[in-house]
Design brief:
The chain is an all-alpha fold. It has a single domain, classed as Membrane associated eicosanoid/glutathione metabolism-like domain (Four Helix Bundle (Hemerythrin (Met), subunit A), Up-down Bundle), CATH 1.20.120. The chain has 5 helices and no strands. Helix 2 (26-40) packs parallel to helix 4 (67-90), helix 3 (48-64) packs antiparallel against helix 4 (67-90) and helix 4 (67-90) runs antiparallel to helix 5 (96-122). 21% of the residues are buried.
Length: 125
């Protein structure tokens, strides 16, 4: 029996996607993977509202600014939360570096998402 290959996802104009076009989608896939990992493995049960805000800002940042940088910032957020958790579990006063990382990442994501949305609203055709 011959092995079947999956057809590539076609672009909107109906032609076949090239390898370069498929590679351009990877940053968006990475951003979504980071967001899904954060949803699946929350570090604290109390942080659901904050985590939802982070998920929304990562997705908006990916849509309106750049998906690669959204993935990088989302990964930094998850790393910051892990640093926060390790510091908190060892001694509550050692959670500062993790809180600083997540705070800065959240501010960058929120500012970028707001900038992108406002720019899209002002300059829509």
């Amino acid at each position: 029996m011959p092995e079947r290959s999956h057809p590539p996802v076609a672009p909107a104009d109906g032609r076949r996607a090239t390898a370069v076009e498929r590679l351009r989608r990877l940053p968006a896939v990475a951003a979504v993977a980071v967001v899904l990992a954060q949803i699946a493995y929350p570090l604290t049960p109390e942080g659901t509202a904050r985590d939802r805000l982070t998920v929304a800002t990562v997705l908006l940042f990916a849509r309106y600014i750049h998906p690669l940088w959204a993935g990088v910032l989302g990964a930094l957020f998850v790393i910051g939360r892990a640093v926060y958790a390790v510091g908190y579990y060892s001694a509550a006063d050692k959670r500062g570096p993790g809180a600083g990382i997540t705070g800065i990442v959240n501010l960058v994501l929120l500012a970028g998402a707001l900038f992108g949305v406002i720019r899209a609203l002002l300059y829509q055709p």
